[in-house]
Design a protein that fits this description.
This protein is α+β, with helices and mostly antiparallel strands. The protein contains 11 helices and 9 strands. The site of phenylalanine (PHE) has 11 residues, from strand 8 and strand 9.
């Protein structure tokens, strides 16, 4: 039996030489060290040997087994190492390549501008009130003292919807009625920010959508002086103490008296440019003392209460601040513009 064992060992080690991958290594293990391998057969037959032969053959069989097991694990290590080297070569990772930058989101400049304006008014004690972007004819016009067919409705080129009497709000003023109806007869100091839509001829100053911020104060003894002071203070909070403001008498059906107010054009320092249409002033919005009929529609007694209202276009503020000479940049999605803020 000893020559058999020598033969088994020699043959097995020879075969192992030619094993090149994990699968044939496993096949080799089953054939040479598995249950029905020749080597195991020797162990099975030990019992049948003569008493004095048993320990000699047994020891030798164990030697062969250990030799094969250690050759197996050596081979296995070599195969692993080769496979690793191979994949390192094939899937080479260049750690000197710069990493991919994670794209950072940012706020849209129109949002930044709206929030800056909101903050300035919040500092003056105004609360934010949200009113609908799509509203009824009654709120957009009727309750603001513009009955159907009132010619003043022409001032707002409105987007109508396929639903009768429902339109995209052309201004934030309908929010005045919403907030008054919610709080009457409490005094109000609120701002109503939001997107407005107008069927406009688009140019450097006008877009079909823009943010507006409505300012409303209702209470006892509120005067035109409060209105002018609030608007001028807002201008100074945003542009610094030197900014000049002016009020021009105007007309709105929902305020009396009414005015439009301008901030000095900072793009040309009042000299006149394409953004301010050569006037040196940029129109920011309309304002006035809340009309008695509107106060009544909101649930306040005009004999007891008065109020002021103003609307401002917040993209215009951003334009003044950053010398942007065309409002169309805001919604034309040019990243070169948007990424600057
Ligand atoms: N809603 C008016 C507009 O969009 C502006 C305005 C607001 C005027 C408040 C007076 C008072 O033109």
């Amino acid at each position: 039996m000893l020559p058999d064992l020598a033969q088994i060992e020699k043959k097995a080690l020879q075969l192992l030489e030619s094993v090149q991958d994990e699968a044939s290594l496993e096949a080799w293990r089953i054939a040479n060290l598995g249950r029905s391998s020749l080597l195991m057969l020797v162990f099975d037959q030990l019992g049948k040997l003569a008493k004095d032969e048993r320990p000699v053959v047994g020891r030798r069989a164990n030697e062969v087994k250990r030799a094969l097991e250690s050759a197996f694990s050596d081979r296995s290590n070599t195969l692993h190492e080769t496979a690793l080297q191979h994949s390192l070569q094939a899937e080479r990772l260049d750690i000197t390549l710069p990493g991919r930058a994670i794209p950072h989101g940012r706020l849209h400049p129109a949002t930044i501008s709206l929030r800056t304006a909101i903050r300035a008014f919040a500092d003056m004690g105004f609360q934010v009130y949200r009113s609908p972007e799509v509203d009824t004819d009654e709120y957009n016009f009727g309750l603001l003292n513009m009955p159907p067919d009132h010619p003043a409705r022409d001032m707002w080129d409105t987007f109508f919807t396929s639903m009768p009497n429902v339109s995209l709000r052309p201004h934030t003023s309908p929010g005045q009625i919403h907030v008054m109806r919610q709080y009457a007869p409490e005094p109000i100091r609120a701002i109503l920010p939001g997107m407005c839509y107008r069927y406009e001829q688009i140019n450097a100053r006008k877009e079909t959508q823009f943010y507006q911020l409505e300012v409303l104060a209702v209470g006892k003894n509120i005067s035109l002086g409060d209105l002018k002071g609030t608007v001028s203070d807002f201008a100074r909070r945003i542009f610094g103490q030197k900014i000049r403001t002016r009020f021009r008498a105007s007309y709105f059906p929902f305020t009396e008296p009414s005015a439009e107010y301008d901030f000095e054009c900072l793009l040309c320092n009042g000299k006149g440019c394409i953004v301010c249409a050569g006037t040196g002033w940029l129109e920011i919005g309309g304002c006035g003392m809340v009309h008695p009929i509107v106060l009544k529609n909101g649930g306040y007694d005009p004999a007891e209460f008065s109020g002021f209202a103003a609307g401002l276009g917040t993209e215009r503020i951003m334009m003044l601040k950053h010398h942007i000479d065309d409002i169309r940049y805001f919604w034309s999605n040019d990243m070169r513009f948007l990424e600057q803020f």
